[in-house]
Amino acid sequence: MNAFHLDRARVRRNFSRAAATYEQHDELQREVQADLLGRLDFYLQAPERVLDVGAGTGRGTALLKKRYPKAQVIAVDLALPMLRVARTHQRLLRPFQRLCAEATALPLPDHSVDVLHSNLCFQWIDDLPALFGECVRVLKPGGLLAFSSFGPDTLKELRAAWAAVDQQSHVSRFLDMHDVGDAMINAGLRDPVLDVNRYTLTYSEPRALLKELKGLGATHADRARERHLTGKSHYRRMLAAYEAMRVDGRVPATWEVVTAHAWGPPPGQARRTPQGEIATFSLDSLRGSRRR
User: Is position 32 within any domain?
Assistant: First the structure.
């Protein structure tokens, strides 16, 4: 399913470096966040614990705490500098906790989370079985997973501009909605619903887009990327190819956003693995079932 791999150390480094500039460039992230919060309307209970995975600078976490003031709300991010900035969004009467960890290894007990929220983070994780397996592990049965992620058409113009210059990997790639949906089902998540929206942002010049990507920490992190500096002539040719896409005085950039939600499975529900379907039960649930 996944033909490419991300350099996790580089992903962490990119976002750590962008912590101070992220909120200068996160207009799209905030718009997607508003749409994602609407998915939480499906959860009709009062959650005890809410997890914001890939919380970044904590804008979304603060909104979750405002929505669920009585819940324990935890911001999780792999980049410690991001969590330091998130402290600025704390409110005296609405504090939330901050936890530096990876989405595939959450330091939380099994079935301890009512709502798991993640805005534009999951595209930076290439091991979908591990990711959604961890979501299933920490979600309570009937708990809600709501997330957004970038799809493969994201930055297609930038990718095409580089392709006009050479065949090397210059732009991060993202998984298709169908691959994401299959991974959710295989992990055992119930009743997944996925939607796709496309946003077209425009810029005065290609360099403005590149500056925004750097300011967000959303720069190239594939392991297959070239490890040496791109030559000036290559760079100028890429810019020229991008300039040819200018419309009404602006250059476009497409962002494909997958928004999804699903529910934590009941205890013992089978999940699919390469070895077949596996169902798990607690020891307590099996006590008394032996014949005597």
Answer: yes
CATH of the domain at 278: 3.40.50.150
Looking at the structure of the chain, the number of domains it has is: 1
The helix/strand/coil state of 68 is coil
pLDDT digits over 29-74, tens only? 999 999 999 999 999 999 999 999 999 999 999 999 999 999 999 9
121 found inside a domain: yes
Q: Tell which phi-psi region holds residue 205, choosing left (phi > 0), alpha (psi between -120 and 50) or beta.
A: beta
Report long-range pairs for 179-186 (Cβ below 8 Å, ≥24 apart): 179/1, 179/2, 179/128, 180/122, 180/128, 180/149, 180/258, 180/260, 181/260, 182/1, 183/1, 183/128, 183/129, 183/131, 183/132, 184/132, 184/260, 184/262, 185/272, 186/129, 186/132, 186/271, 186/272, 186/273
Q: Let me know if residue 206 belongs to a domain.
A: no
pTM for the whole structure? 0.89
Q: Does residue 87 sit within a domain? A: yes
